[in-house]
Design a protein that fits this description.
Structural class: alpha+beta
Oligomer: single chain
Distance between the termini: 44 Å
CATH topology of one domain: SHC Adaptor Protein
Strand order of the largest sheet: 19-18-13-14-15-26
Number of helices: 25
Mean pLDDT: 80
Number of strands: 26
Helix content: 40-55%
CATH class of one domain: Alpha Beta
Low-confidence stretches: 688-798
CATH architecture of one domain: 2-Layer Sandwich
Largest sheet: 6 strands, mixed
Strand content: 5-15%
Length: 798
């Protein structure tokens, strides 16, 4: 099915994302719709780099718009004719730069794919949670059954009160008629009095039954409120906590809103029933009237239940977040953030009548140096149904900011607990008043704890605090959490790490990857489920390279540069040296795998199988690639063009099969740049090759990657040019190599290099700063896939 057709079949949530996408200028939705088939068949990515291709597509686009305009002329669609003419005039601005237009269209298509991927992920999550959903469905069905029972009880009670009123009117009519007739016959009089007494007794019994039914209805309402407030709402709050840190949990409030509103409507009807009973008592009462005796307690109980329901119905639907933040709940002073509140009890007559006010807590916890903040911006808004896609009662604050108060937080009586800025937790409060049909109650909602920073360098540490709190805390108001911070059980911790990849790239960590991380943290264990990770181990150890810094560096690199191949499952990623060797040594020559560096933050490398002179497998690896390299050349192009100098000085790619046995071009080919030779935009990085040759110049006698430092007989890197490049360069420069020891961020000490030590390139600052003319060539040498020295996988895992 065409991409546009798939998009049009998405649910309302994703259609809203599509509408927001096409609110931007660049590609009108009408053009995307009417020319969808043609647009999706064109190579816009190629056109964005090739002027000639872009110009051809630009001309065809204008022709298609003319054809579409002619169709609207035939259909006499005046408005569409006007729009198409206007769109064509807009596109004609790109006549001198068609590549920009092609890049813009490609951007829209990529964003569409992101929306589709999000929708598909949601479907996959639902499939993976079949059992849980079945259980939830059963609970929801039971709740729906009870809700239907409550509505039925209200209808029955309404009918009962009508009957009660009819009985009372009947008695009153007969009694008033009797008094008007002035019966003098004692026998007849006694007979009528017996009849009236019978009617009174019947009326009294009916009143008692009605009051009993009222109590039963309130029992059912109380049971439902307990389910909604103590279970369903608490479960939603926990799901929201987890979704804030990447969990794919459903946090839609529409169903809860229906349930809360249903119970509230029923309780307001009960209040009307009680008022009706008051009216009936005012018309007629008698000694030991059950209504007079029981109604005050029923009034109090109804109001208490309604108050309990309403106080819980005011929630924060979308937690505070900055537009460019690392995630929700991390706020920065003097930077705008948004937050949305919602009232789960929806009455149309309350639209725009309830004002919500934002504030910070005035009572700071007993923490030394605890900061206080003021809320700036539009801090008061009406609850309304216009700002919600589902028509819910929301107040959407979009332009709030925080400013630190001048007065310090310290003072007498403050405890000696000292927290860092990124461990301080603050809560934002929202207050409003519910007032309907004579019932009024003050409501307050509160955000999850936020971390407030003053500069962007604190974001990484702040996000670590948000992850830890929402992973472990079941008390959403525990601002003292980091005073005595608990450890995280491995199952929860591993799941949280997977959520980070899932939310950033739409692909989480598999069991093998999580097991490797567990092995890195705890060493070899029989059962990792009983292991725990401390807060200090995660993010607070002395030194810059904590576990979180290392892990987040990988996450940012994958999201920024490797998302496509990560989503396809082409990166094994988290795999230990020992496991890597076990996997590769059983494979044929040229088999390679991709893994993340353990010693270089935000680094990725690859290792492959070579055969030594005895025919035994020899595992090679290269110095890790970082954002310095990947921002210049895509990783799949590095893999595609990586070469080493083999026998007879013939350059050859050692990377043939992605583990376990997928041909390299089959795995990565769909991302290759279509241009070759001088037209290849990455040619300036790959035309200069860094070769390794032994002093004996004999590959049969010695592996080109090995090095024996004790004998002084090692490979020499030779920066050589060949082909066209050789004719243009007369003086090839040499780049030195050296052995280095890396400190593993997860280990207490570094491991010594052994005979399988890694071989790295070394550059001095002067190579880059003092010689600008030479910089480009040397930098190209660094980034060229084949320029990076191949190394043996030895005693330290990069």
């Amino acid at each position: 099915m065409a991409q546009w057709d798939r998009l049009r079949q998405l649910s309302a949530t994703y259609l809203q994302q599509l509408n927001e996408l096409y609110d931007r200028d660049g590609l009108p939705m009408d053009v995307r719709h009417y020319l969808s088939a043609w647009i999706e068949k064109q190579e816009w990515q190629r056109a964005a780099r090739d002027y000639d291709v872009a110009m051809v597509l630009y001309q065809v686009l204008l022709e298609n718009l003319d054809i579409q305009h002619s169709r609207f002329v035939q259909e006499e669609s005046f408005l569409q004719q006007h729009n198409i003419r206007r769109y064509k005039q807009s596109f004609q601005r790109h006549q001198d730069e068609p590549c920009v237009l092609a890049s813009t269209i490609q951007w829209f298509l990529d964003k569409e794919k992101e929306i589709l991927n999000s929708a598909e992920l949601s479907e996959q999550v639902q499939l993976l949670q079949v059992e849980q959903e079945a259980m939830e469905t059963t609970c929801q069905q039971e709740l729906q059954r009870k809700m239907a029972g409550l509505r039925n009880d209200v209808q029955c009670l309404e009918h009962a009160i009508i009957c009660l009123e009819e009985q009372q009117d009947e008695f009153d009519f007969k009694y008033q008629t009797h008094k008007m007739e002035a019966v003098t016959d004692e026998a007849q009089k006694n007979e009528r009095m017996k009849m009236f007494q019978s009617l009174i007794n019947k009326l009294n019994d009916y009143r008692k039954n009605t009051l009993a039914d009222l109590n039963k209805l309130l029992d059912r309402a109380e049971d439902l409120i307990n389910l909604l407030v103590r279970k369903e709402l608490v479960d939603w709050q926990r799901r929201q906590q987890k979704s804030c840190i990447g969990a794919p949990d459903n946090v839609c409030l529409d169903q809860l809103e229906k349930w809360f509103t249903c119970v509230a409507v029923c309780l307001f009807q009960v209040r009307e029933f009680l008022n009706k009973l008051d009216e009936l008592v005012g018309k007629m009462s008698y000694e030991n009237d059950p209504i007079k005796a029981q109604k005050p307690a029923l009034n109090n109980r109804t109001d208490a239940l309604l108050k309990d329901l309403l106080k819980s119905s005011f929630v924060v639907e979308t937690q505070p977040s900055m537009p460019q933040g690392k995630g929700p709940l991390v706020l920065r002073t003097n930077v705008q953030f948004s937050v949305k509140t919602r009232l789960l009890v929806k009455f149309a007559e309350l639209n725009h009548s309830m004002k919500v006010k934002v504030s910070m807590s005035r009572e700071a916890p007993q923490i030394k140096g605890y900061r206080r903040f003021n809320v700036l911006g539009t801090a008061t808004k009406d609850l309304n149904m216009a700002e919600s896609l589902s028509g819910g009662m929301v107040a959407d604050f979009r332009h709030l900011s925080l400013k630190e108060q001048k007065s310090g937080g310290g003072g007498k009586g403050i405890s000696e607990i000292s927290l860092s800025v990124t461990e301080e937790l603050h809560i934002i409060y929202f207050n409003t008043v519910f007032d309907l049909k004579g019932f009024s109650v003050e409501l307050q909602a509160s955000s999850l704890p936020v971390v407030i920073i003053s500069n962007s360098s604190q974001q990484q540490s702040a996000w670590a605090s948000i992850l830890w709190f929402n992973m472990l805390s079941l008390d959403p108001k525990d601002v003292m959490f980091f005073g005595t911070v608990p450890a995280a059980p491995w199952p929860q911790f591993g799941e949280m790490l997977s959520w980070q990849f899932l939310s950033a790239t739409k692909r989480g960590l598999d069991d093998d990857q999580r097991k490797m991380i567990a092995h890195k943290l705890f060493g070899k264990q029989q059962n990792y489920d009983i292991c725990q990770v401390t807060w200090s181990k995660f993010s607070k150890e002395n030194g810059p390279d904590t576990f979180w810094v290392w892990f987040d560096g990988i996450l940012v690199m994958v999201k920024t540069y490797l998302e496509n191949i990560w989503r396809e499952g082409l990166i094994m990623g988290f795999v230990s040296r020992g496991k890597e060797k076990l996997l590769l040594k059983k494979k044929k020559r040229g088999t390679f795998l991709l893994r993340f560096s353990e010693s270089v933050v935000g680094g990725i490398t690859f290792s492959w199988v070579e055969m030594d002179s005895t025919g035994e497998p020899d595992i090679k690896t290269v110095q890790p690639f970082t954002k310095t390299d990947l921002c210049q050349i895509p990783f799949h192009e590095i893999i595609r063009n990586f070469q080493i100098l083999e026998a007879e000085n013939i350059p050859e790619s050692p990377l043939l099969f992605l583990y376990p046995d997928t041909p390299k071009d089959e795995a990565f080919g769909k991302w290759y740049n279509g241009k070759t030779g001088a037209d290849n935009p990455y040619m300036k990085y790959i035309k200069t090759k860094l070769m390794f040759v032994s002093k004996e110049n004999s590959l049969e006698a010695r592996s080109p990657m090995s090095c024996d430092m004790t004998q002084g007989d090692c490979l020499e890197p030779m920066n050589g040019l060949y082909g066209e490049a050789a004719e243009q360069e007369d003086e090839p420069r040499l780049l030195q190599s050296q052995l280095e020891t890396f400190q593993d961020p997860m280990l207490s000490s570094s491991l010594p290099l052994d005979d399988d030590g890694l071989l790295y390139m070394s550059f001095t600052d002067s190579d880059f700063i003092q010689q600008p003319d030479q910089f480009l060539t040397d930098f190209n040498n660094l980034l060229a896939p084949s320029l990076l020295p191949a190394q043996t996988c030895g005693g330290i895992f990069q």
